[in-house]
Amino acid sequence: MLKKIISKISGKTILIASAFLLLVSPLSYAQNWPTKPIKLIIPFAAGGTTDILGRLLAQQLTKDLGQNVIVENKPGAGGNIAAEFVAQSAADGYTIMLASGSMLTVNPNLYKKLPVNYAKDFVYITNVASGPMLLSVSTKLPVKNLAEFIAYAKTKDLNFGSAGIGSQVHMAEENLTYTAGIPATHIPYKGESAALNDLVAGQIDFMVGNLTAATGFAKAGQIKPLAVTSLKRSKQLPDVPTVAEAGIPGFESTGWFGLVAPASTPKVITDKIYAATVKAVNSDALKTSLDLNGLTAVVNNQKEFESQVKAESIVWEKVIKGRNISAQ
Question: Considering the entire predicted model, what is its pTM?
């Protein structure tokens, strides 16, 4: 009888101990994170603004986290290919994504079918940076300023390129052409850099690209910069007026980029990523790099980030319906 009682107690003890270990192990694992390299997924091709920012951030996070942060580009479908990859990755903090604002606020309103649910399949960590855009035209176009461009565009069948349907670049272009009353044809690419290369080659007529990616081409005389979309002039191109100055009062359009991870990633891990990102963007090295690229550091907590996404989603939903923009 005594042996049976001892056996039952031992069995219960083992079960309790096993359950305790199951609870403690993930917590211990998360607290020790990171113990191996981290993948930072970039949803667009190399050379675009998301890629440039991602590489700058990865360098600093590598120092702050003590593990290599490796950039991996997965372009296509307005960022949805990368989003699907990340959503299906293990929720262990070793796969995170630098998403463009358009992926989180435009894609859910634009695509009839999506491989992910942006509101449920990700945990929003923090915004990282924002920056203005630059209206540039091919050197082949016989225009010197925004007013000449608008007048010329209204008499021609011009086209413009973007980083993909629904991308920040695309939506900024739709916003500008609609406001200016310009009839133009949209040509989507798999990334901003590919579109810029075709603008340089004269294969497309104009583009409203992120300042970060377009400035080098503008300074080299390979494209003609006409106006920046911020309310103030850019330090990078101080002689280029704002769209508001050049003829469309009150016009403003900026792009932003934020870190997300697969849903169910432990909070202790996302908190570490958030803390490291805050430290990174406040470092002198990254601040200088962001400034040189026309970007401004922006960090907010998870609730603030979610609120930002919800508010902008409402705005873009109205624009998409009003302009009858659609994607397959």
Answer: 0.82
